[in-house]
């Protein structure tokens, strides 16, 4: 009878997959916690003795002079905002009448086509003047003094087209389209400006 030979068991040189996984997870967790504190210094931090308050810089104010009667409405940090006096602006406004927006829009379409503009320009004009006056020939902004369908400021500017500027939608539309063409090139140009800053 022969004795069994002893088996030599060699220790493995590489760790098991389980221990590698645990080590990797612990390493990633440690790195993650370190990064949170480095990237977000306020996570769990307390007040620092090294806080330095921001320096406030006040710039020189700017001044703009405009003819007319104006009053100061608001001011902040050296900037003052003024608005036209409502009493002076409303002195020339006529009594309200019965507006006919549908007829005014039909006149607007004819005037747009007469200039060789397409329907996309008319659509921009409708949107623009819906925002400004809802195509009301008697629309009057008592705070600014703007008047009529195109909200001319002041309304008397429309007298360059005809004396009936206070009541005639055709006069107001013609003046408004001349203004738009001269300043923005087209109704869609005026609409884009109005979308950006809420006035044209």
Helix/strand layout:
Blueprint: H1 17-39, E1 70-76, E2 79-84, H2 86-89, H3 101-114, H4 119-132, H5 169-184, H6 187-197
Helix pairs in contact: 3-4, 3-5, 4-6, 5-6
Describe this structure in words.
The radius of gyration is 37 Å and the shape is rod-shaped. The chain has about 200 residues and is mainly α. It contains six helices and two strands. A two-stranded antiparallel sheet has the order 1-2. A hairpin with a 2-residue loop joins strand 1 and strand 2. Helix 3 runs antiparallel to helix 4, helix 3 crosses helix 5 (about 170-185) and helix 5 (about 170-185) crosses helix 6. It has a domain at about 100-195. Helices cover about 40% and strands about 5% of the residues.
Largest sheet composition: 2 strands, antiparallel
The beta-strand count equals: 2
Identify low-pLDDT runs.
84-91
| Distance between the first and last residues' Cα | 113 Å
Principal-axes geometry comes out as rod-shaped
> Number of DSSP helices?
6
The fraction of residues assigned to DSSP E strands is 5-15%
Mean pLDDT over all positions: 78
Helicity range = 40-55%
Question: Strand pairing plus helix content: what structural class?
Answer: mainly alpha
What radius of gyration results from the CA coordinates?
A: 37 Å
Strand order within the widest beta sheet? 1-2
Helix/strand order: HEEHHHHH
């Amino acid at each position: 009878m022969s004795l069994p030979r002893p088996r030599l068991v060699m220790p493995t040189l590489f760790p098991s997959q389980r221990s590698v996984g645990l080590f990797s997870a612990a390493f990633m967790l440690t790195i993650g916690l370190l990064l949170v504190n480095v990237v977000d210094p306020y996570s769990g931090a307390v007040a620092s003795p090294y806080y330095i308050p921001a320096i406030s810089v006040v710039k020189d104010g700017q001044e703009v002079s405009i003819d007319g009667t104006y009053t100061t409405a608001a001011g902040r940090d050296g900037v003052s905002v003024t608005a036209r006096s409502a009493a002076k602006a409303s002195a020339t406004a006529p009594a309200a009448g019965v507006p006919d927006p549908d007829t005014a829009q039909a006149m607007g379409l004819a005037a747009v086509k007469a200039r060789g503009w397409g329907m996309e320009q008319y659509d921009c004009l409708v949107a623009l003047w819906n925002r400004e006056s809802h195509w009301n020939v008697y629309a009057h902004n008592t705070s600014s003094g703007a008047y009529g369908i195109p909200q001319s400021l002041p309304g008397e500017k429309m007298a360059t087209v005809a004396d009936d500027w206070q009541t005639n939608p055709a006069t107001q539309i013609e003046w408004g389209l001349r203004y738009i063409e001269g300043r923005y090139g087209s109704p869609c140009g005026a609409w884009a400006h109005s979308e950006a800053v809420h006035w044209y």
